[in-house]
Amino acid sequence: MKNYFARTTQERKLLGRVDVLIIILIAAICVGSCVPLFLKKGDVTAKIIYDGETVEEINLSQNEKKFTLEVGRCDIAVEGHEIFFANSPCPDKVCMNAGRLRKSGEFASCVPEKVAIILKGDRKSPDAITY
Amino acid sequence: MARKTALAAMMCALAIAISFLEGLIPTSAFLPPGAKLGFSNIVTMFCVDTLTLPYALCVTLFKALFALMTRGATAGVMSFCGGMLSTFVTYGLFKLKNLDIGYIGIAVCSAVAHNAAQLAVSVVISGTPAIVIYAPVLFASSAVTGILTGILLKIVMPVLKKQNRIITKGVENL
Fold first, then answer.
1. pTM of the entire structure?
2. B2-23+34-168: CATH topology
3. How far is B21 from chain A (nearest CA, A)?
């Protein structure tokens, strides 16, 4: 127990070599994992997941209609190429603050209500085909 | 010991006040939804550095209780798990000798640990492993806010340490 009460204080600088390494590493991971998602061309499909299971898949690129879906206790609205949380009974409203989603790789989730929307690009339409 | 406990109580109040005040700052323009500035992490890091681990864990616990009362059970559990992991990571990094790591690196690691634990909790609560897709966005934002809190910690450290000395030793012993 004594060890826990030992002070750790020592003079410390603001930025060391390890700090720079950490930041570069995080930046590399983020860019590396995000770029493929956002670069995907073709139709955008919205996947609505409730309690770990996909309950609905909507092709947003082809969609022109306006409608609202009830998933759990949340209302998810689809307006043309956009999808968003219209209403949710959760306390912090993170899902609604995520705003309107339209691009591949975008994501919104209401953790207390177990609802998530994930937008994915369609692999079936590649950027270019060479023979 | 009593003075230290009093100081820890003050730090709890400070952490709670900061986390409430930062909630008033609209962050939707420059941070992804769900991400927070994490300024109250400055208080936890200060506690780990000068007040030792048990006190820092107390501050984290009170922060989680505050989140539980004001923002509901999900926020409470997420704050607890995130806070605990980030406090242990901070403690480990402060303890490591011979490592060229500064306040920024510690703050970034602590923020990443906080977000990683919260993401893990939200995967468990929502039963949706697919939301791990959010990890890169969260880690990027924790790198940015970590740099910010690291700089702030470096600035406020001398001031807080002076206050710390006054409270734990008394003005007469300065």
1. 0.82
2. Arp2/3 complex 21 kDa subunit ARPC3 (1.10.1760)
3. 15
